[in-house]
Amino acid sequence: METISENACFGGVQGVYSHRSESCDCDMTFGLFLPAEAKDGPVPVLWYLSGLTCTHENAMVKAAAQGWAAEQGIALIFPDTSPRGDDIANDEAFDLGQGAGFYVNATQNPWAPHFQMYDYITKELTDLVFDKFPLDVTRQAITGHSMGGHGALTIAMRETGRFASVSAFSPICNPTDSDWGRRQFTAYLGFEEDEWAEHDASLLMAKHGFDGPILIDTGTKDQFLDLLKPETLAQAAAAKRQEIIFRMQPGYDHSYFFVSTFMEDHITFHAEALYA
Ligand SMILES: N[C@@H](CCC(=O)N[C@@H](CS)C(=O)NCC(=O)O)C(=O)O
């Protein structure tokens, strides 16, 4: 692992690190915020999964998360959204290929050799950060934005018992029935739609639900509402009688101005679960 940068931030440290990833077969970069409390021992962790076109950097500089995380003594992990490199498959569209890994393990060529983002996040990066930094493996929560909200919800529901809480900002809620999903799942996973269900938050909600609290915020002026389908997840959660706070925020769009506005609520929500 190589340290790219470390900057003092809200009494803690905002670092950027790169490492060779076996699952993605390329170098990967991630951001990690450690609060001051990490000097004295392991701290709880909030994973933040980013959306389409993002690197590790977007949320790190635009989500206004570090100050609230410092107040709660929580670390933040900002992974990248895909493998990257000139010799790695890509697509001209912004919503497929590099910057758009959709948090799945691709089985189809040309994506399969590198696009293994589910394993990268849930196994490889997990092992690395808990090995190298003072993080408490027993206290983890997860959040994300848009494609990253889809990643947070699906990973939380599949990795049973790992996360105390999950939240999402404008998540893609029903990708198997959306143009933000069907095209990408066909490319990464193939035409067998049964394989897609394990990566659809609404279908996972109907099947498993989540054993813990969920918080979801989406803006009423989100320009991608028809692709996100929050109503499908809301219906599935109601049918499951899932513990959930589901909010449509009047006037807000899809941008980081929206994400940063509600970041305090999300970090406070996760802190309650992590310190329960
Ligand atoms: N505006 C983008 C659409 C993609 C988009 O809005 N991406 C969101 C996540 S789905 C994002 O976080 N963009 C990066 C940023 O705002 O910093 C485009 O058309 O290329």
UniProtKB/TrEMBL annotation:
Cite the InterPro entries for this sequence: AB_hydrolase_fold, Esterase-like, S-formylglutathione_hydrol
Entry's EC annotation? 3.1.2.12
Q: Keywords on this record?
A: Hydrolase, Serine esterase
Q: Which domain of life is it from?
A: Bacteria
Task: State if Hydrolase is listed as a keyword.
Answer: yes
Q: Which Pfam families match?
A: Esterase
Catalytic residues at: S146 (charge relay system), D222 (charge relay system), H254 (charge relay system)
Q: Which reaction does it catalyse?
A: S-formylglutathione + H2O = formate + glutathione + H(+)
GO MF terms held by the record? carboxylic ester hydrolase activity; S-formylglutathione hydrolase activity
> Keyword Hydrolase on this protein?
yes
Question: What is the top EC class of this enzyme, as a single word?
Answer: hydrolase
> Listed GO cellular component terms?
cytosol
One GO term under biological process is: formaldehyde catabolic process
Instruction: Give the protein family.
Output: Belongs to the esterase D family.
Q: What does this protein do?
A: Serine hydrolase involved in the detoxification of formaldehyde.
The protein depicted here goes by the name S-formylglutathione hydrolase
Q: Which species is this record about?
A: Litoreibacter ascidiaceicola
Task: Specify the taxonomic lineage.
Answer: Bacteria, Pseudomonadati, Pseudomonadota, Alphaproteobacteria, Rhodobacterales
